[in-house]
Inverse folding.
């Protein structure tokens, strides 16, 4: 009987000791029992994946900001280059390639080709201009251009003064006429070079 009691106590203590060994890692003051390391590998892998996923998130704003900055810097330069190319390739005002109306073309030709900085006609053949004026303009305006006042609503102005002080108006009326003053249009009657000579000569009249 005594022997059985001792055996029972020994078995009970052995069982109790084994349970304590299993839970020692969770018990304060008891040295932890070594555990298998296979669970540590997934934890390490998860940490690496998390770091890898975080990298694009951290770097993406910086990359986007750099890209946006580059586009902002390059955009004005590209636009300026495009505008310059269009300016170089655009048809010259008054040229056959221009898409302006015939009135606009003829007026642009005057402004860009014929007038100097003082409003005088450049390159006019005054001798030929005098002959053409005599043939086409003298019958109405007189030999000196002072037969018709071209400003009846104000102080008298004659074509010589009009040609010197307001060549665009003189040029337009010579090309396209003036219905209010019964002036004929010479756009289809006189060549452009002849009109240039007439305009230059008219600027010499009183």
């Amino acid at each position: 009987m005594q022997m059985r009691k001792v055996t029972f106590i020994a078995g009970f203590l052995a069982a109790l000791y084994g349970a304590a060994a299993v839970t020692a890692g969770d018990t304060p003051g008891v040295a932890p029992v070594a555990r298998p390391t296979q669970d540590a590998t997934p934890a390490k892998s998860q940490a690496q994946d998390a770091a890898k996923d975080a990298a694009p998130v951290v770097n993406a704003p910086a990359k986007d900001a750099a890209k946006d900055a580059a586009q902002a810097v390059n955009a004005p330069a590209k636009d300026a280059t495009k505008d310059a190319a269009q300016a170089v390739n655009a048809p010259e005002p008054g040229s056959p390639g221009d898409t302006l109306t015939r009135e606009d073309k003829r007026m642009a030709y005057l402004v860009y080709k014929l007038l100097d900085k003082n409003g005088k006609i450049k390159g006019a053949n005054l001798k030929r201009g005098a002959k053409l004026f005599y043939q086409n303009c003298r019958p109405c305006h007189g030999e000196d251009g002072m037969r018709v006042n071209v400003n009846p609503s104000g102080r008298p102005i004659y074509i010589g003064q009009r040609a010197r002080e307001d060549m665009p108006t003189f040029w337009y009326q010579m090309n396209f006429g003036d219905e209010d003053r019964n002036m004929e249009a010479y756009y289809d009657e006189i060549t452009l070079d002849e009109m240039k000579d007439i305009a230059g000569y008219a600027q010499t009249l009183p």
